[in-house]
Amino acid sequence: MKIDRRTLLISSLGLLLSSEKGLAEDSVSFAKDHWACLVDTTLCIGCRKCEEACNRANKLMKPSIPFDDKSVFKKHRRPTENAFTVVNEFPGSPSIAQWDRKNTTVKIQCMHCLDPSCVSACIVGALRKSEEGPVIYNPTICIGCRYCMIACPFEILAYEYSNPLTPRVKKCQFCVNTNPEGKANPACAAACPTEAIVFGKRGELLELARNRIKQKKDQYINHIYGEYEVGGTSWLYLAGRDITELGFKRLQKEAPPRLTEEIQHSIFKYGAIPILFYGFLGALMAYTNRKNKKGE
Amino acid sequence: MEEKILKPIPQKIKFFTTGTFILLALVAVGFTFGLARFILGLGTVTNLNDQYPWGIWIAIDVACGVALAAGGFTTAALIEIFGSKQYKPLLRPAILTAWLGYAMVAFALVFDLGRWWNMWRPIFNWQGNSVLFEVGMCVMGYLTVLTIEIAPAILEGLKIKMKEGGLLQKILLPLEKPVYFLHNVVHAMLPFFILAGVVLSFMHQSSLGTLMLIAPTKINPLWFTPILPLLFLLSAIMVGYPMVIFESIIASKSFKKEIEINLLSKLARKIPYIMAIYFIFKFGDLILRFDQLDFLKHPSATISFLVEIIMGLLIPFFLLLFKRVRRTPGWLFFSCLLIIIGVALNRINVYLIGYHPSFAEKIYFPAIGEILVTVSIISLIMLLYRFFANYFPILSGLPEAEEEEEKRPYVLQPKWAWAFRGVAVFLLLLFVFAYSYVHKESIKESIKAYQLVYSYEMKGKEPPKIKARDHIMRPKGYQTIYYLSNSILNSKTDYYEPVRFSHRSHDNFLKGNCAVCHHRISFDESDRVGLSLEEFHRDMDIILGAPCSSCHKDMNEIVIEACDKCHRWPDEPDNPARIGLKGAYHRQCIGCHEKTSSEGFLPVDCVDCHRKNVPNHKDLVNISDNPSIKDVTEKCLQCHEEQGKEILNSVHFKWGGHSPQVSGFEHSIDLGLNTILNNYMIGTGPNLAYCASCHIGFGWIKQPLALNDPKQIDCLVCHDTTGKYKKDPYGGGFPDPQIDLKEIALSVGIPSRKNCGNCHFYSDGGPNVKHGDLSPGLISPDPDYDVHMGAFQMNCQDCHYTKNHKILGRSLSAPATEGALSCQRCHSSKPHQISGILGAHLDNHIKSIACQTCHIPYIAKEYPTRIFLDWSKAGLEDFKLPKEEKDLIYKYDKKLGFEIWKRNYVPLYKWYDGKRKVYRLGDKLANLERVVLNEIEGDRKNPNSRIYPFKLHRAKQPYDTKENNLVVPKLYNGFWNDFNWQKAIKEGMEYLGMPFSGSYGFVETEMYTSINHKVVPKKKSLGCTDCHSTEAVRCSRCHKRAAEIELPEHYRRVYPNLKFLNFEELGYEGDPAITGGRFYTVLGRGLPPQ
Fold first, then answer.
1. Is the pLDDT of residue B189 over 50?
2. B82 interaction partners in chain A (CB closer than 8 Å)
3. Do B134 and A268 touch (CB under 8 A)?
4. At what angle do helices B228-254 and B261-288 cross, to 10 degrees?
5. Under a CB-based contact definition with an 8 Å cutoff, are residues A150 and B213 in contact?
6. Where would I find the H helices in B974-1023?
7. pTM score
8. Is the Cβ pair A126, B212 closer than 8 Å?
9. How far is A82 from chain B (nearest CA, A)?
10. Which of A108, A251, B81, B491 is most exposed by smallest CB count within 10 Å?
């Protein structure tokens, strides 16, 4: 009797959710085999080849300022609909070991979080964390609500605001389109002349990063950005200085969806609380009705 | 009781008043902007950007809209669940407000959603983790519930219309049966839906708070709290009754009814209690989190917070505690308005004002379009409210005809009602399972959408083969020049050609220390890690730093590991920690190049070492069939706009520019081919149609080109790779009309030697006419012909270093230059790289002798070069050629006159300090005996001067005997037609706007051409005794102990039949090897002054 559309909907949601729980619980060890990239900011020379490679691989619009023009560094840029990755320059040497270098350059792109906020936020599942690790976007079912952009803790996502009918959310897709098996480097890593971007399995790259930190104490600080930030990311950053000076935010260890999903699933799990609440209200209604009738 | 009589009735007042017209106008204006959003996109109408993806369309239209529609469920709960039937007159207006509110939320979303036509997707694509999904589904569900809740009012309205007669009755009468039927069904089911409505509202009102919890870093801690959903729910409940009161008072005013103050003040008494509950949670939360709050970081947010708390919460709370306030319509209205504003501000604060993206360039403020669309939506709600209240029984009033005829035709049997419900439940179940299946499939589909593989085909150019040149005492892999190329590396990437790497010059610059790059050594084939070379030597108490060859006499004996022994490919599946070959090369190179780039020419830019791979333009460019050259250029400029600007400023396009090497005009930018003349084809001016066939523009037929129009650049003449592009020799720079430009345009690439040679090998009318050292033989030469281009396959731009279309190099005939280049740039200031005494002697030469002098022994090898031209003999029908001498060729051309050509031209040697004079148009001839058009400057006593080789071209050319200056005749379409000098000169000078006295004569002029190309291999360059006497270069003459040393090969004459430097002519007393250099007379006397 009390099973209406809403309760059914909610209980089936609960079933759907319970199967996806594994990802959330132990995000760091969970993703050992995920595709990942390690960016070593001390090796980056700011050549912008990654930007160029990304632009070509994704067939994006050519920017008005050519890729070999470093005047773009005057401003700190963010990824846009036509640039999934951008390199920014920050004053100061990348590390003590490289004291003679004037600037540190850092590339930013979608971090491909292990527990992505955008994926949790997406109303239709247009954004999805694939089994291999990349967070990919399916425009066909996207409704364009841009909640993913609100959710992204790295503020990476860009939107085609100028497209009136079929705007898309634009972000790095980890080159899954050109490299569906993950056997080759993503375009930016392949283009990086100094191999400041290393592509591999996340577990191995974490080990590699730890080794580098151990070996070169004057070149790295003991922090792998992305190891634990927002539940861990597939893109990891090594730096020789405080990475929050390099355009990154200090982020909590817990992934933001843990809070929202916990609230959602604890209140609405199997629709239990709404059904109980419905029952309670129904009983109250029946009681007051009877009382009113009696009163009359 | 009085209230019992009151019933919801249609108000039936005049609908159109000034107010409604204003509202209609607002709706119209807003919808115009809304329409613009659908045509032009969100970006045009809104101020949204990547940092602020949500603006007021979400914060006000959706978040506030949903919150303020809370009156519906709170009133419904009060009346139907808690049984306070006395408030029944307020139910229908509240439900109507909520219904309109939610409908408008959905409507407003159409504007805001990027892909609004996909709005139905959440029904099929479920994403249970998404808070927004929960909100969306609940809002959809609640909108359905509200429709059912408002349905009785609508259906009753229809029933009334059916009774009233008129046109409407006729239309509606056929619907009588279904309307009554539906009314009964709805009536039967209503309680279930009222319950569902309350539950759904609780769910999504709270979820709207959860929504923003996903952005903990962006939401101001003043609002960010895990109990935000609870606060949202409580504040929604709190705003419910004030909203009902507010709307009731406005409706009463609007419909000129009496305000139901008794009812409203009773309702208002409940508000402070609800507010108190909200209070406790709100302040409790703030106090618990007090240390997290930062009031100073975002002052505007703090102010907004204070306004929300004080004005929207505290003031109305205290006001509503007073009975007088509750009983006075004005005060009651004001207090309720404050609460409404407070809650609305709370939503706006959470969604907008307290939303602080870290990387936003500026704070979001709504655009005019956003504001107007929002205003129009609010206006539309008011209009619709007025419409429904006017024509449907919403607001209570005294019914006109009190007829209690509640007969209820078409009553539904109870068992049928249950059957209907059962079917509905079954369908719902079916939907649930079907949709969950669709949902799972859709996720699988999503990866397929990305299987489109984009391929970007590079013009796969194999690097030209360079013949290995082994060096004695050097390991096998050591070659003079080779490509740092690796097939694996090339297959993985990239946009660049491999680097042409000169082992020898790096060896030279690094002073023989191989360990700088070859830093590790391994003794086992399979060992890819090896030992550090430094540590390996340290174990033997040797500290590295000196040339390896100082200990290892024969480097062949030791193993030097090639880079790719350890570093093989970029991503090694077994070990991502190992640096790949590309990274190894770059990390090894970039450090040194950056650190020492100030000391000399060490390339640091990517294109300094690599050559860019040109993408296959067939994939990139869409060009019509049979394009004109202008179409091609326009097509090029579409992408290469910057490059067009670069060309406009280039010497190659302007034919003039800065001339720092012309003495007297060092700072001039006016000198160019149009202001000077030469003694080959004399001058451009009137002959542009002919001369422009060597210009990188087109359209230069009658008058000088507009030199600021990039559309007149001829891109193809340099970038053609097919070899088919040809300029019309008399076409003013236009191409031959026969050729297919499309094919050429689609296969553009980096200029080759042939592209440059198309003009430079044929300057002044034919191969080798002007330059003896630039001839078509350089397109594919033997190593002996030219070592750079023959043995090492170097392109022109490898030496004539090019950046931004500015090309290094200088010419003696064209005054403008874009920078000078020198051999030392690659070969260093100690270029000979022969150790010991001989090396020192040879390296000493370059202080006084240019490299070209010894290394280009003679020119005009396969084609002769012209050394004399007599214009005065032109136009004759019959000319008798003199008898030919050895290497000299005599020719007669009616158009040009008598010519002398020479094969195997041994250059003229002169002191040259890099400067020269220039003869400009109109300059008076000072001395008719010797007229030099580009006199070389330089002097033996000038330390900057060195001995350079030159080619001398003499000509007898026309001049104005009275004005005493050289003249430019019109040759093409002039002299060459009728062979009339008088007329040709007159026309030519007229064209230039210069005086011509009418009398002309012929004067002999000289012009020098520099010799820089056709550098021969070292064995073919001059030997010591080609210039010096055998006695002068005997080692033992000075080095007493060197008596037994065998003189090197180089000692012999290489060209016994040719004569080279004449020391006396150059100002020396005798052979400088004996008499001493130009600045000293005693041997062993140190270095010349710098």
1. yes
2. 284, 288
3. yes
4. 160
5. no
6. 976-978, 981-992
7. 0.74
8. no
9. 12
10. B491
